Structures are given as structure tokens and as C-alpha cells.
Amino acid sequence: DQQVKQNSPSLSVQEGRISILNCDYTNSMFDYFLWYKKYPAEGPTFLISISSIKDKNEDGRFTVFLNKSAKHLSLHIVPSQPGDSAVYFCAASLGGSEKLVFGKGTKLTVNP
Amino acid sequence: GAGVSQSPRYKVTKRGQDVALRCDPISGHVSLYWYRQALGQGPEFLTYFNYEAQQDKSGLPNDRFSAERPEGSISTLTIQRTEQRDSAMYRCASSLVGPNNSPLHFGNGTRLTVT
Questions:
Q1: B38-59: per-residue pLDDT in tens?
Q2: Which residues pair with B50 in a beta bridge?
Q3: Shortest distance, CA A17 to any CA of chain B (angstroms)
Q4: Pairing between β-strand A106-111 and β-strand A86-94 as defined by DSSP bridges
Q5: Which of B21, B45, B57 best probes binding to A when mutated, by most A CB atoms within 10 angstroms?
Q6: Interface residue A104 vs chain B (CB under 8 A)
Q7: Do A98 and B56 touch (CB under 8 A)?
Q8: A63-112 pLDDT, tens per residue?
């Protein structure tokens, strides 16, 4: 039973437009959420995180939004660039736990 | 500086053999994690260490899987009597303190194929 769900296996956007990647979770005890980005043949790299006490965190072109009542978070990339093409994983953890629970990932393709 | 290093990069083994996968974390990182990633899936937690102490091994699938980090640095994940279902990418990650306070840095993984 997937506790962290990324329902879109892939997403394609034009360069310069907004990319929106979505993630849903089922465990209301999760209190810390992260996004990782993965290029082929490499390990995932940390992108941005958000604590459950916030509803938004921004870092340059990347913004993560958290809607606790809907158990939903999203990653916005504006403007999208071809170098953003990668697989994006959503992950969550329980307070005090070192264990991250990952979604299956969404493959983003940004077309020039 | 060097990132997390895993060896071997690829391992092909016959069913029933034992394998040992090595992880060399970023120098100074306290926490070390092992994850397993099947094709088309996200990483799945196996176990983690703070220094040399194994704090959580709840994700290890069965007693054929074990891990150690005897000196609080390099770690080895051992799979005994391998089975075909063990085939996957095995990823090691390290962090300065822990995922809520510092992000995980993943290695490039060891792709294990059991024939």
C-alpha cells in the first residue's frame, strides 16, 4: 500500500512554461516532505523540502506547496528549462523518524 | 569533494551466492542509509546507522539481509543465499545529521542482478 503517491508517471512541458508535479500522501502523521531529482545513471539529489508547519517554501525557480487538509503537495518549476528534465521523487517522513518514504516518481521532460 | 561512493557499480551473481555491497559515505557524515529501488519505483528504506550503531533495520526484507558499519564510516550490505527477487538497484545515502535536519546525499548505486 503506497503511502506516498505520484499518480502521473510522466509530464511534458515547453521551455519557459510552468511545470507542476503533484504528490499525495495517506499518512496524516507525516510532518516533513522533500523533493528529489534524479538524472539517468545517477543517484537522486535533494531539491527542496517543507515542514508541515508551513504551506509554502521557495528556492529560486522551485516552490513547494503543502495542503495538509488535502494531504497533497506540489512542486512548481518556473520557468522550466531543458536541464530540468529528470525524474522527480516526492518523499515524506514521520516526526523523529530517519526513514523516508518515497513515491514512484514522475518523469519530467522540458522541450526546447 | 567526493560524494557517496558505492562499489561495485554492477554485480551479477548466481542464485544462492552471497554478495557484499560497499558504501563509502561523505566524510564526516554521521548518518548512513541503505535503500533499494526496483525498476519504476521509488527508493525503499532498508536500514540506517548513526555512527556505527544500527538504529533501524525494519526495512530489511528477511534475515538473509544484514548490514554493518563497524567504524562509523564505510558500510557493507550483505545478502546471503541470493534469490532472483533480490535483483534491484541498491542505493546508499549519507547525511550530516539526519533527513529532517540535513538532506540525504545518494550514491550512484549498485545494480544487482541475480541469475
A1: 999 999 999 999 999 999 999 9
A2: B31, B53
A3: 27
A4: antiparallel
A5: B45
A6: yes
A7: yes
A8: 999 999 999 999 999 999 999 999 999 999 987 678 899 999 999 999 99
